[in-house]
Every structure is written in structure tokens, then in C-alpha cells.
Specification:
By secondary structure, the protein is mainly alpha-helical. About 85% of the residues lie in helices and about 0% in strands. Helix 7 packs antiparallel against helix 8. The protein starts with a helix and ends with a helix.
Amino acid sequence: MNQEHDTPESESVDNDAELNPQEAAALLQETKLRAQRQFDVWPPFLLLIGAVIFLVAYGAAWWSVRGQSPYVGPSGAALAVMYGGIVAWIVAVSLVVQRATSGISGRSAKSRTYRTGYLAIIFAYSLFQGALYHAGASHAIVYGIFPASAPWLFAGTVFLTLGATREESRALALGVVLIAIGIGGAFAGPVAVWLVSGIGLCTVLVVFAIVQFLRRRA
């Protein structure tokens, strides 16, 4: 009888001892490789298209505000070009990436969670912009520095955090560059911030596309 009662306990101890340092290291490496695969599914041609779209989109906003005195912000047509082009590119990238990762278990549920999170971020971002206007912030901040630079500070922080936790060098580098674009654009002022963001994002996507192309050839 005692032997029967001791067997489950010994099995429990053995199960607890199964995760040794080597297996923990292997699990960490697998997490790192999974993060790298998420980057690798981005097609270089879509990244190059995105580079052109961001340059044109932010260039249109810069063109509409240059010479404004006092500053009032981009025109409705410029905003339509900017947000329309960016949203269309994001949708195209999402479809391609989702198709490339469709075989991964639980991917569809995670995609829905990500979309919900993105919508919540956009809603909170719009509310904060309204709060700045309500608090009496100038048009240069509400319709210039904040919308053109704040998103890249946020995105850079996200990539920096993911890169640090997953030990993914490309995510770390991307996070640092996006934060630099956001800060540099903010210091450039409400007019030049649009041009700085457009050129900076275009450069990032071109470099990312080249890296992806070289990795695929290798």
C-alpha cells in the first residue's frame, strides 16, 4: 500500500525536475527564433512599396503646411492622402503576413487580439490629441508635432521592449531608430517634423527590405 501511495509523489518530483538549464536555454532560443520568423515573413517588395507610400504621405502633409503663418495643420486633402495610403499599405501587409503564418496554431485568435489592441491604441491616441486641444495646446503641437512624431515614439518603445525580452537584435535596432525619428522630428518643429518622419520611415523600410532580401538569398 505504501508503495502505491509513493508512486504519484515520485512522478511529481520527476516532472518538476524535467526542466533543466539546457531545456530552459532551448526554450529561450525557440522564442528568439519564433520572433525572427515573424520578421522574415515580411516581403521585401511590400517594404519598398511602404517606403514610397510613407515618403509620399508625409511629404504631402509637409507640402500643405510649409509657409503657413500661423500654423494650422495639414489640409484635408493631404490628410486623406496620408492616412489613406498608410492604411491601405498596413492592410496589404497584414493580409500577406497573416497568409504566411496561417499554419501557426492559434494565429487567427492572436490576430483578432492584435487588431483589437490596435483599435484601442488609435482610439486612445485620438482622445489624447483632443485632450491637448482642450487644454489649450497650440495648433503646432496638436496638428503638427504630436501626430507626426508621437506614433513613432510609441512604436519604437514597443519594438525596443520586444527586442529586449526576446533578444532579437533587429527589433532592438528598429525600436532605437523609430524613437530617434520621433525625437528628431519633434525637435525639427511642426513643419519640418512631417518631412523628417517621411524621410526617416522611408529610409528604415528601404534598409529593412535590403536586409530581408539578403537574408532570403543567403
